[in-house]
Amino acid sequence: MNKSATQFCPVPQEQQPTHEYQQLQDSWFFSWATLEPTDYIKKLLGVGFATSIIAAPIAAASFLPTKYPVKFFLSSIGGMTFLTALVLFQLYFGWSYVCDRLYQERISYEESGWYDGQVWLKPESMLTRDRLIVGYEVQPILDRIKKTFVFLLCIVIVGSIIWFV
After folding, report:
1. N or C terminus of the chain: which is more exposed, having fewer CB within 10 Å?
2. What is the pLDDT of residue 6?
């Protein structure tokens, strides 16, 4: 391939995978996954606290805190975990989408609307660059989110064991 062929990219700027990746990094919400571990945990604890404001009254309506304190506490934690998991799903799906777009050899894009979709084959140099971004930048983010899901799942399992004991 000649040099001009590797420099030309017919995909509109906003639909190029590297641009989508940069937008996620710059996004208020999606950038949470790129933060240092302590800051990431603080954000999730903030979400957990905010969701407990919703979950605790619902749990209190089901289990009076004075009469069933353990069930109230466990159902509050369960609701908080569920709502936090929804936030994590959004984070995961956003980063997973960009990961797939970066990793694929072909980029599907739209020139002006849904009816004129096109597919462009990435040049080898662009594919290599994008796959390096996946391996060194995006995959660790996805792994972090997966580990957080495992942690939340452990909370649910321990809570379930306590509930039934």
Report:
1. C
2. 46
